[in-house]
Amino acid sequence: MAHRIPPCSGCGLLRQVVTCGSFTAAATALGISQPAVSQHIARLEQEVGMQLLDRAGRGMRITYPGKVLLHHTEGLLSHLREATRELSALAQPDGGEVRMVTFPSAAATIVPPVVGTFRRALPKAKVLLSEADPVVALPRLLAGDADLALVYDYPDIGEPRDPRLHWEVVADDRMAVVLPAGHRLAATAEVPLAGLAGEHWIAPNPCPCLDAFVNACRGALFSPEIVAVSNDHAAMVGLVSAGIGVAVVPRIMAPAPIPAAVVLRPLRDAGISRSIAAVTRTTGYRPPATDRLVATLRAELAGHAAPGLRLDIRRAAGDR
């Protein structure tokens, strides 16, 4: 027999039942009666012509046909959400919202002034912010849970980029070193990484940042003695201030308040640099304000600097 594709509402109810684990839990979540949920699922199975849920005693499991339908349901519901947002944007062309996910050090430094400038230019627009490292942010972007991801990437060790994503590199962030103010190299204009071979180090937990740091140290012919680990750059600065060791941090941190007990200095010949990129999906709905937000980001990054620790700004496509 021919199987008919059921309405999205029925598929959405199936999704809710599977997510909640039972008819009763789904009914509670939706604010309807349990018999009503059972009737809707029974009608959905009749429309499809296949059993979607296997009811075994008090338990319940989804059948293979149910999994197939649910797989397609996710896509249908995603397209429906995007259509709703696009229609909303048409109704308020100078408003709407952009869902932006950003990496932690940017969230603590550059993103607040970017959002402030953006909102002053477009007061009816919204920026819904969340924070995540690229390994989490990019899958969220692909899943449609974000419109724009601000991420970092180490070109020398980066993995192949997903063709479903468009990368717009906005700046290159060469690393700086955090030293105690009384360190023998604290007054040096540019600190050679090899000159820090005998130091104790505060380093990131296992991640691309740590890989880039360790590779640079190997290039300088030493293996770093790591005595503390943290992925929080402010915490790393604090540990240096407490006399635990020295640390490498991105230049994006330079304009942030720095304890008097430490200094930030550029690294010479270290080769540790990460790209900062604004990433969007190549397909699907793109909020009209996205380009304005990325342009604001570029402008703010150009002025985000401390003496001797400026970021290397990339030109936008089409700029001369």
How would the blueprint of this fold be written?
Layout (H helix, E strand, L loop, with lengths): L7 H13 L2 H8 L3 H15 L4 E4 L2 E4 L1 H28 L5 E6 L1 H4 L3 H11 L4 E6 L2 H9 L5 E6 L11 E16 L10 E2 L7 E4 L4 H12 L5 E5 L3 H9 L4 E5 L11 E7 L4 E9 L8 H13 L9 E2 L7
Parallel strand pairs: 3-4, 3-5, 7-11, 8-9, 8-10
Antiparallel strand pairs: 1-2, 5-12, 6-10, 6-11, 6-12, 6-13
Question: What's this entry about, in short?
Answer:
The protein has 320 residues and is α/β, with parallel strands linked by helices. It has two domains: 8-90, Arc Repressor Mutant, subunit A (Orthogonal Bundle), CATH 1.10.10; 94-320, D-Maltodextrin-Binding Protein, domain 2 (3-Layer(aba) Sandwich). The chain has helices at residues 8-20, 23-30, 34-48, 64-91, 104-107, 111-121, 134-142, 208-219, 233-241, 290-302; strands at 53-56, 59-62, 97-102, 126-131, 148-153, 165-180, 191-192, 200-203, 225-229, 246-250, 262-268, 273-281, 312-313.
Written overview of the protein:
The model is unreliable at 1-8 (pLDDT under 50). The relative contact order is 0.14. Helix 1 (8-20) packs across helix 2 (23-30) and helix 1 crosses helix 3. It is elongated, with a radius of gyration of 25 Å. The protein contains 10 helices and 13 strands. Strands 3, 4, 5, 6, 7, 8, 9, 10, 11, 12 and 13 form an 11-stranded mixed beta sheet that branches. It has 2 domains: 8-90, Arc Repressor Mutant, subunit A (Orthogonal Bundle); 94-320, D-Maltodextrin-Binding Protein, domain 2 (3-Layer(aba) Sandwich). With 320 residues, it is of the alpha/beta class. It has helices at 8-20, 23-30, 34-48, 64-91, 104-107, 111-121, 134-142, 208-219, 233-241, 290-302; strands spanning 53-56, 59-62, 97-102, 126-131, 148-153, 165-180, 191-192, 200-203, 225-229, 246-250, 262-268, 273-281, 312-313. It is 38% helix and 24% strand.
